[in-house]
């Protein structure tokens, strides 16, 4: 599929090729071989994880393993971003004219911003929001405004916040897998979630932030479904609040409901819904009280989407090439693991890692069929595709170093050969 996605634009007619609107299809970016400050650090990090990751994953205490996985992911992500340089790859990512920070200084009143948010979504009006702000609910802009208000303004602080939250998803995946399956299974996936090729886009796109938030919402739900008493109730409420906020970061995160269902099916416990859903409703109610109704924003953003290049981008290409893009973000190990997860015998057994990986895939399929994700899904689908990494638990243990090398090579090649942007 990946080869076909690369070759198809080369053999298509000129107009079709232009309308794809991607210079390095199926990735959104352009071919630009380069090295940078982060090259050596990224290679050394990859070699360390390949050599020692599987052993440490088996030996470290559980708490230390979770922390180490998140920290390793952070080093890996930052190293990859620094291949493009401090400004180009990190501090300058979120300050471009079409990004969130371009609007932060214009927000004099948070309540005023929420009240007028929907009226500024559509394009071709004097006060239209920038591309990224208009394409998302106000929670995204609100996040960066609040960072600015507490003294963490500017591109470097915003980028640091995004990759810290994004890389924390590694811990959420480990906790979810351990809760719904067992600790041994979670330990097997630890090196893979730390060394994910998706780090190319976690550093630094806001979608990495969305991924981290959504992943912790699912982890809290897994805790709620496997705990008892007050702890279960607290975790369920926390999950509802986090996932409720997530849909005000990204409209597409309503599809995290597919992952939530997978969690409850794996745990065979549905009581958390009684607490999580009302908690999510509280978040929606707060935004509505301040003037933003989610459904109004969604319908307007669909209209805004088709005011741009989406009208020209052919679904005949992106309808399937999207999955080649997503493959670049999860790597060959996750793809092979997913193939094992989709075997009928495993599907019938409803193993936790199988349910989570299949749910991630199903969310991606639904997003694809909506035709609201034509291109750039290597980053846009991160909150869904990251769950395919749990399928690496199904790979033979003796092959882990081989597949970790494949994961690292995927990320290093993309980051050194393609100038990715969004």
Kindly estimate the percentage of residues that lie in beta strands according to DSSP.
Answer: under 5%
Estimated helix fraction:
55-70%
The number of domains: 1
Uncertain segments are: none
Biggest sheet, strands in spatial order?
1-2
Supply the number of helical segments.
24
Number of strands: 2
Question: N-to-C terminal Cα separation, in Å?
Answer: 23 Å
Decide which structural class fits the backbone: mainly alpha
Report on the biggest sheet: 2 strands, antiparallel
Radius of gyration: 21 Å
**3D shape:** globular
Order of helices and strands: HHEHHHHHHHHHHHHHHHHHHHHHHE
| Average pLDDT figure | 96
Description:
The chain has 24 helices and two strands. The chain is globular, with a radius of gyration of 21 Å. The protein has 422 residues and is mainly α. It has helices at 2-11, 14-19, 38-59, 62-83, 86-91, 101-104, 110-116, 131-134, 138-149, 155-167, 169-180, 183-194, 199-202, 206-226, 229-246, 256-267, 273-289, 294-305, 315-341, 344-349, 352-369, 377-380, 382-385, 400-417, and strands at 29-31, 418-420. The model has no long low-confidence stretch (mean pLDDT 96). The protein has one domain. Helix 15 (229-246) runs parallel beside helix 17 (273-289). It starts with a helix and ends with a strand.
């Amino acid at each position: 599929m990946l080869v076909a996605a690369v070759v198809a634009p080369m053999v298509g007619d000129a107009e079709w090729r232009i309308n794809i609107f991607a210079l390095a299809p199926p990735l959104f970016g352009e071919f630009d071989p380069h090295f940078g400050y982060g090259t050596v650090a990224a290679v050394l990090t990859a070699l360390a994880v390949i050599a020692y990751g599987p052993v440490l994953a088996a030996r470290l205490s559980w708490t230390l393993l979770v922390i180490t996985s998140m920290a390793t992911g952070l080093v890996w992500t930052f190293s990859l971003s620094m291949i493009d340089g401090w400004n180009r790859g990190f501090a300058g990512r979120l300050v471009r004219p079409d990004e969130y920070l371009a609007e932060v200084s214009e927000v004099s009143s948070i309540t005023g911003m929420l009240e007028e948010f929907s009226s500024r979504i559509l394009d071709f009006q004097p006060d239209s929001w920038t591309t990224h702000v208009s394409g998302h609910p106000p929670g995204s802009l609100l996040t960066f405004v609040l960072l600015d208000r507490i003294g963490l303004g500017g591109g470097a602080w915003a980028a640091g916040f995004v990759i810290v939250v994004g890389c924390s998803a590694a811990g959420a995946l480990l906790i979810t897998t351990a809760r719904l399956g067992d600790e041994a299974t979670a330990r097997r996936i630890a090196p893979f979630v730390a060394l994910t090729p998706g780090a190319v886009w976690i550093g630094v796109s806001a979608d990495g932030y969305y991924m981290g938030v959504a992943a912790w919402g699912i982890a809290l739900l897994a805790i709620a479904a496997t705990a008892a008493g007050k702890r279960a109730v607290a975790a369920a409420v926390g999950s509802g609040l986090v996932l409720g906020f997530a849909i005000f970061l990204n409209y597409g995160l309503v599809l995290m409901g597919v992952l939530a269902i997978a969690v409850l099916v794996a745990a065979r416990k549905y009581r958390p819904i009684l607490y999580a859903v009302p908690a999510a409703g509280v978040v929606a109610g707060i935004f509505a009280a301040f003037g933003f109704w989610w459904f109004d924003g969604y319908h307007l953003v669909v209209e805004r989407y088709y005011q741009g290049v989406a009208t020209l981008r052919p679904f005949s290409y992106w309808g399937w090439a999207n999955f080649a893009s997503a493959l670049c973000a999860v790597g060959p190990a996750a793809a092979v693991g997913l193939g094992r997860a989709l075997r009928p015998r495993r599907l019938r057994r409803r193993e936790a890692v199988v349910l989570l990986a299949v749910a991630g895939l199903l969310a991606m399929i639904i997003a694809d069929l909506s035709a609201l994700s034509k291109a750039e899904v290597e980053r846009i689908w991160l909150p869904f595709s990251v769950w395919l990494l749990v399928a690496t638990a199904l790979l033979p243990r003796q092959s882990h170093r081989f597949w970790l090398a494949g994961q690292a090579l995927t990320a290093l090649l993309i980051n050194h050969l393609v100038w990715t942007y969004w």
